[in-house]
Write a structure and sequence with these properties.
elongated, four-stranded antiparallel β-sheet, Umud Fragment, subunit A
Length: about 210
């Protein structure tokens, strides 16, 4: 699962949150720093969070206009080596450490609730994944970022500039332009999802695979 780092919702949260509003000068308690114990807790959170997430840059226009070339995103690492116990450990540490920084608590909890360790991928989620057509022996893996448009068991086709899922045309006001290609009706296999780029005519995605 991906979290956009563009300023929209995050900046509004930081500006609107009461802890960050201007305070009278007679109250300087918010400038106090936590002691060694607090810094150790923050270090634990940082190490655990680095195991669960990473920052990536958008290299192409396949997700335009939602994501532009050069945008930075925070992505969650979902792998067999990382499990729910690691996420719960991060949550427990964050709950303790963020008591010193309450204005970050809501942001971190929101990210944890959205985690794929808590829920399954959903329609319209933006996800990153390795190129499924790349040989497994390649050492450098290509990473794609696309939008989920259908889940396992759904029937998908593109025709007359519209995406159809289970025979229903989808309303997509986030795409750059209607697709100029057509794709035959296909059923999404079990354990898979169907992904497309928002810039439909300039995206290497499930309609090729």
């Amino acid at each position: 699962m991906s979290f956009l780092s563009r300023p929209s919702s995050l900046s509004h949260f930081l500006i609107a949150y009461p802890s960050l509003r201007w305070m009278p000068c007679q109250s300087w308690g918010f400038l106090r720093w936590p002691g060694l114990d607090g810094f150790m807790r923050l270090l634990v959170v940082f190490l655990l969070w680095s195991m669960l997430s990473e920052i990536r840059f958008i290299p192409s226009s396949s997700m335009y206009p939602t994501l532009r070339v050069g945008d930075r995103i925070i992505v969650e690492k979902v792998a067999k080596s990382l499990n729910l116990l690691a996420l719960l450990a991060c949550l427990a540490s964050a709950s303790s450490a963020l008591s010193f920084f309450p204005f970050y608590r809501k942001l971190v909890y929101t990210m944890l609730i959205a985690s794929y360790y808590i829920r399954s991928p959903a329609i319209n989620d933006i996800v990153t994944f390795f190129d499924p057509t790349q040989p497994s022996e390649d050492t450098e893996k290509n990473v794609f970022i696309k939008r989920i448009v259908a889940k396992a068991g759904d029937f998908v086709e593109v025709n007359n500039g519209l995406l159809y899922v289970n025979g229903i045309p989808q309303k997509e006001d986030f795409i750059a332009e209607p697709p100029k290609y057509t794709s035959n009706l296909a059923r999404v296999p079990k354990g898979h999802v169907y992904v497309l780029g928002d810039n439909r005519n300039k995206s290497y995605d499930s309609h090729f695979w």
